[in-house]
Amino acid sequence: QVQLVESGGGLVQAGGSLRLSCAAAGGHFSNYAMGWFRQAPGKTREFVAAITSGGSRMDLAESVKGRFTVSRDNAESTVYLQMNSLKPGDTAVYYCAAAYWYTAIVGGSGPDYWGQGTQVTVSS
To answer: Which of 2, 38, 69, 70 has a Cα-to-Cα distance from 83 of 20 to 30 A?
Structure first.
């Protein structure tokens, strides 16, 4: 069982930056692909970013390419989402996720574990 705890959300003005962190416990972090998803009010949860267990491959949603980056520190069992040039449309609850298979995150079949989410609000 893997527990995921996100932090770093908050209120920021458009054009600003935030870095989300997700700390993992209870499993072998380096065995898991990690991802970030978000859910805006009234919308379904959507994929944002993913990174393989070793960090050699990353994928980003088209809507955030060039603005967001995903990284991980396996020694610290933490995955990060650096968000730059934020827009009001990025306002959502952001969720960290873990999966044994990378395709479970990027392919839509669903991660194995979820965090509780952290709110990101971007004001115009």
So the answer is: 2
